[in-house]
TrEMBL record:
GO molecular function, one term: nucleic acid binding
Organism: Trifolium medium
PROSITE patterns: INTEGRASE
Coiled coil: none
UniProt protein name: Retrovirus-related pol polyprotein from transposon tnt 1-94
GO biological process, one term: DNA integration
Short name of any one Pfam family annotated for the protein: rve
């Protein structure tokens, strides 16, 4: 089922930086369709905002909800703010 399981990772810092100064990118891959979305970031601290943007986009487009987010459990994914948001949204 679409969005039942979404994989995410952050890569970087990348050298050289982009023309806009971005040094990282964040990926989201739907396990069912294998479709991947990429968000470019200047700092890792943008990860939570990018996840909320991604979630709103794909849930509106598909009519499905993200049920499970799988990551490497890096600090960007394990903050209290991120965990509380996922819990409130029913994401494991």
């Amino acid at each position: 089922m679409k969005l039942e399981l979404v994989h995410s990772d952050i890569c970087g810092p990348i050298n050289p930086t982009s023309n806009g100064g971005s040094r990282y990118f964040m990926t989201f891959t739907d396990d069912f369709s294998r479709k991947t979305w990429i968000y470019i970031m200047k700092e890792k601290s943008a990860a939570f905002a990018n996840f909320k943007t991604f979630k709103a986009l794909v849930e509106k487009e598909s009519g499905c909800s993200i049920l499970c987010l799988r990551s490497d459990r890096g600090g960007e994914y394990t903050s209290n703010e991120f965990n509380e948001y996922c819990s409130a949204e029913g994401i494991k």
